[in-house]
Amino acid sequence: MKQLDFFNTTSESGETLQKQIKKATFQNEVIFGIFKRYEGAEFTGSDIEKQTRYLITSVRRSITTLHDKGLITRTGKRWNKDTQANEFTYKLK
Q1: Helix (H) / strand (E) containing 74
Q2: Whole-prediction pTM value?
Q3: b or e along 53-86 (b: 16 or more beta carbons within 10 Å of the residue's beta carbon)?
């Protein structure tokens, strides 16, 4: 996982940028590990946030990255019982 793991929206550079890329890559690996560990299970961003305690924005970035890489798939279902809001669910591809 390379630069695609981190979206440099704050125009970081140098050492700070490298740290942010490493952090995002690590978060992606952790979140992908959850999908692999519970193969067949479906998760929303909120579900992953609860398990990892990462910021929801980081979780959504990671899910988007994993989806764009073809590692997970959107199920088409949209619901989160805790928030009672529509959220896409994803599972391992």
Answers
A1: strand 72-80
A2: 0.86
A3: ebeeebbbbbbebbeeeebbeeeeeeeeeeeeee
| Residue range 57-81: mean pLDDT, rounded | 91
CATH code that applies to domain 15-92: 1.10.10.10
Q: Cβ contacts of residue 8 below 8 Å, gap of 6+? A: 17, 20
Q: What is the largest CA-CA distance in the chain?
A: 42
40-64 per-position pLDDT tens digit = 999 999 999 999 999 999 999 999 9
DSSP 31-47: HHHHHHHTTT--B-HHH
